[in-house]
Amino acid sequence: MRAAYGIDMALTREEATARARGDLAARLGMAESEIATESVADADFPDANFGANMSGEVSAQMITPGWRIRLSVNGNSYEYRANRNRLRLFNFKGANHRVV
Questions:
Q1: Of 48, 54, 82, 97, which is the most exposed, with the fewest CB atoms less than 10 Å away?
Q2: Are 21 and 82 spatial neighbours (Cβ–Cβ below 8 Å)?
Q3: Global pTM?
Q4: Residue 8's pLDDT is what?
């Protein structure tokens, strides 16, 4: 994430969750208010892309701490994986997606 003047800005747990909700709302064509936050938990992921590589993407193989964000809509559950620098949607319609 970049702020004015090219200075890096880190995501907080709350900001990552808010961005995940906004992203999911846009993907599903609905209001953010219709999306429930099931849980936000600390997690250790197997690589720098949180085990959520996109097709053809390579990732550094190192344990990467972050958060597992679970959202729900109409009985369906969606998982985002994030840390202070990245946010990814995991296995949405069979594919992973980079959000930030």
A1: 54
A2: no
A3: 0.89
A4: 56
